Amino acid sequence: MPRRKPVRSRKSKRKRPARKCPAWAEAEGGGEAAGTSENGPTSPMKVPKKRGRKSKAELLLLTLSQGLDCQAPEPICVQKVLGSNEAPDGLEATPSGRPKRRAAKVALLYLQELAEELTSVYQPLAPNEGPQEPESDGSRKKRRSRRRKEEEADDDDLSQDVDFVPSEEVLLEAAEEEEESDVLLSEVSESEPEAVRGHTLRMQSAGKSKPQCRGLAPNGFHNSIMAPVWKCPSITHSLRDQHYSPWEFPDWLPSTRKWTFLSESECAQYLPGEMKSPLFSIQREGIEEDGVLYRINRFNSLQPHEERLDVSFFVGGPVWAMEWCPCPEGSAAPQYVALYCNKGMDERHSLAELHTGPALLQLWALGILQPEAGSATKARLAYAITADHGCIWDMKFCPSGAWELPTTCRKPPQMSRLGLLAAAFSDGKVLVYSLPHPEGLLAHKRAQVKGGPFPKHTICKVQCIATLQVGSIQAGNSSECGQCFSLSWMPSKPHQHLAAGFYDGTVAIWNLPTKSLLQRVRQPDGSLKIYPFRCFLAHDHAVRSIEWCKVNSNFLVTAGNDRKIKFWDLRRLYEPINSIKRFLTTEITWLLPYNGVTVAQDNCYASYGLCGIHYIDAGYLGFKAYFVAPRKGTVWSISSSDWLNAVAAGDITGELLAAVLPDLAMNPLNIKRPSERRFPIYKADLVPCSSAGGEEPRPKTRTYSEMTKDHCLRFQDTDLRSFQNFFSREPTRRMHEQEVKAELSLDRMQLESIHKGGGQPRGPVSSPKEELRPMFWSDECCSDLLLRQLVTPPGPHPYELRPLAGPA
User: Fold this and answer.
1) Alpha carbon of residue 462 to chain centroid
2) Is the pLDDT of residue 212 over 70?
3) 803 CB contacts (<8 Å, ≥6 apart)?
4) Which tens digit of pLDDT belongs to each residue from 402-415?
5) 203 phi and psi angles, rounded to 5 deg
6) Taking the CA of residue 682 as centre, how many other CA atoms within 13 Å lie in the half-sphere pointing to its CB?
7) Residue of 688, 655, 667, 641 whose CA lies nearest to 802
8) Where are the strands (E) in 549-654, listed by range?
């Protein structure tokens, strides 16, 4: 049995032995015992001192001992300080022998006497004498603890030291310094992980103070929210200077020989089925609306609002894929958006089977989206391309090097190039189109159509530049991987690789400029057929989304129907870098400055209260997932802006919101103001046509004709010109209320649902929705109201802006 140590009672404390009176106290007091006076013994009050802080006497002794030379200095004259009429006799002493501090002059006299005694005792070492042996750590610690206890016992009564009371100015300065230090420490502890707190404090002590993030920015957001946004433009601009190219794929130019214009009878089978849009109304925050119901014909648009400059047009069906056409940064060029919509509102597609059929790819011209250029122009259909490869699930433009000026002189039959567009079809093929500027195509149309009826809309049959297909030359033309659902173009120059995800979980990567005879085949019509140089099985089911890392092209992230998100290193594809199984991901986006992805989530596998938008670290930093924004319904689409450090997402409830992300390079567990980082852009609701308030219950129908018979759509736009008092305004309060009390009716058609593209809704029943009013986010200029408010640069904005994907 181990023997227990005896426990010492707190009451049985050993008494300290009385210390001897020092020699200077006996000399001053005439040999009497220290601590006695004429009036009797005194018992000073013990005041606890702050640990680690030295007294003034110790500081003076330390200074004198460091500044002493080998020769003893001359003694300090007391008369210089006290004056000739004052004498140091009759001083009272404490029990330890130290004189009481009655006034500043007496204390100064005491310190000078100590200095005299120290200088008289100090003698330099002889030349033949060496330094003494260092003391052990144990003896040094014992001496320090003994000295600390003696100083605590020798403290005098502070109430008697009237002359040592600091003034009010000194107290105010000390309070301000302490408050600033507390604020800095709190900011570091709440916004940074434990590993970097010490480094931050060391940087602050070295003179590199942390920028203050207090108060509100000019746009109305808090400075702590805007701090990461201010860093992103310079980071994005510098990286695009390194990884973007002014010109790529010089051989892939549009030619008039490959573009054939169709008559109205020939293009009838490719057109969407709906001739007119459903009734809808627009409510703009801060503007009293008269409740007018609008209806737009197919391929037409409304005149932009004179104050808000919002754009609305009808494309004829539910939009499933949409992509902005990139152009050089800072250029005042017209903006274009490519989109695809299904032919019918009630059309359904099977994911497991390949299918072909007529499809129409539309290119809409939106004009110069800059407020300095004047009022916004009316949206128009620039031209459309017909295809027979089934529906389009995704489309991607070449990030850079594909756009040139419309006035570029080209020898016929070549035309100036607008961009290179890759489209993923339901027959398992990926087609690459070289799109011309509408001006050049219109000139060719006028030269070709002479004397006959001029078609109202420009619809063409186009021969693609290249067909990308999985397999090999010996495998034939049939694809065994299923439909292609997602695309991603390599973001760094020369943009030679294109990745795609398929139904069976396969990811294929093509080398577009390859010269290999095993990967490149010239077709009889002059187009190319390219086979992938790399294929690997990424998931057990369909690949819903795929995204390339923008900083390093060796890394790729995929999300599949097996509920997994996998990060891949293309140099070692035998296993993923990290695999996360959380929920069913509908779409992912990878922001430039972070080592992780922001994901949109289907609510079928989500835990209660955790459905919405999440940021997931790739695994290098080991951070937990950060909850960006809660959503009651499935988030179908998400897109990011590298310039603004923000994401935008649309869900099944018909709400489009944006969220400004924090600095996710740090630990996101202690993020401040999470609810203030997101804000609504607009909300779509299905209401009865007879009642603008919408008190009547929504119909439980599954067909488009029954839904639009007695109901209309109501769009509520948010005034994004200013964010002052934004969180107390009605749109924000409505958004927070919807996050808690939103009601979903899944047994009816979700006509108000926002679905930019990416795939089919889950379950056996496909619920198409009509994306009627695209709220466009310019990719190249600071033109949208939201983007103008988030970034307020000095002078014209020199950078382009990534699209915040929104509804149509």
Assistant:
1) 40
2) no
3) 324, 639, 641, 777, 778, 779
4) 999 998 999 989 99
5) -65, -40
6) 29
7) 641
8) 555-560, 564-569, 578-581, 585-589, 596-601, 612-617, 626-630, 635-641, 646-651
